[in-house]
Amino acid sequence: MNWQSFESNDALSTHAAALLLNAIRESPRIVLGLPTGRTPIGMYARVVGECAREYRCFSDVVTFNLDEYAGVPREHPGSYSTYMKRHLFDHVDIDPSNAHIPDGTAPDLDAECRRYENEIRSAGGLALTFLGLGHNGHIGFNEPGSPFDARTRVVELAPSTRAANAEFFPDGNVPAHAITMGIGTILESRAIVLLAAGAGKHEAIERLRSGVVDEFFPASALWKHPDVTVLTQA
Ligand code: GLP
Predict the structure, then answer these.
(1) Whose CA is nearest to atom 10 of ligand 1?
(2) Ligand 1 centre from 87 Cα, in Å?
(3) Cβ-count burial of 129 within 10 angstroms (0-12 exposed, 13-18 middle, 19+ buried)?
(4) 3-state class of 165 per DSSP?
(5) According to the model, what pLDDT value does residue 165 have?
(6) What percent of the chain shows pLDDT beyond 70?
């Protein structure tokens, strides 16, 4: 695991954006795994700024988001679909049919999870996946106790995760379930970049750094992967 520490969130975001854009320049048809949350907002802002100056930045890129809330329509202001449009997709030249997010309103959610896995496989698998880190160590919505070989599936959100995301559901209807790529799905990405920063993350970051691999701390699964870069804030 390659750890890199930055003085500020700006510096971390600039570096993360450079990793993402360099990967696209090297491989314009790259398949990316993408996160949501507060941490990657600066990265997306920089990617959008750079792409405005570049011809055909995302035109052949394929993306798969890590997760989406169950039962929340795509157009809902709190959905990850809305998040991705607001922070990235509405501002770059991605082909909407190449931008994949699980459908949390599909009539059969288990079938939707299988369909999502198949789409990732048909696209050739994830080449580079960016992740955020939950306070309890979750990656995507893989809460503590998630098996390290889990695939895309429906999960129940931990009370602390629902509390952390309550502000995006001001009517009080914070979703209790979500669809998430499994840890097994994520670990098949050829390279992974974890953005580990933000208020209250110190404990989770130090627990990850300790190197103890434990299913009750999902991010520790990343120690089993040969190409992980962790970007933290000093
Ligand atoms: C959410 C997302 C995760 C994200 C995490 C951390 O629960 N499902 O993918 O990494 O929150 O979010 P933040 O960056 O806002 O701390």
Answers:
(1) 132
(2) 15
(3) buried
(4) coil
(5) 93
(6) 100
Which residues are within 8 A (CB) of 83 and not within 5 positions of it... i.e. 6 or more apart? 36
- In single-letter form, the type of residue at position 221 comes to A
* pLDDT value for 12: 98
Other beta carbons within 10 Å of 216? 11
pLDDT of residue 55: 73
Q: Which amino acid is at 84?
A: M
136 is catalytic: yes
pLDDT > 90? residue 95 = yes
**What separation in Å is there between the alpha carbon of 107 and the centre of ligand 1?**
26
12: Cβ contacts below 8 Å, ≥ 6 apart: 6, 42, 195, 197, 231, 232, 233
**Res. 89 pLDDT band, cuts 50 70 90:** very high
**Structural contact between residues 42 and 49, judged by C-beta atoms closer than 8 angstroms:** no
Strands 128-132 and 31-34: parallel
β-partners of residue 156 are 177
Q: Which of 67, 68, 112, 117 is catalytic?
A: 67
Q: Per DSSP, what are the bridge partners of residue 233?
A: 6
**pLDDT value, residue 107:** 97
If pLDDT is split at 50, 70 and 90, which confidence band does 127 have?
A: very high
Question: Are 125 and 189 in contact, with CB atoms under 8 Å apart?
Answer: yes
The token pair at 57 is 């930045």
Has residue 234 got a pLDDT over 90?
no
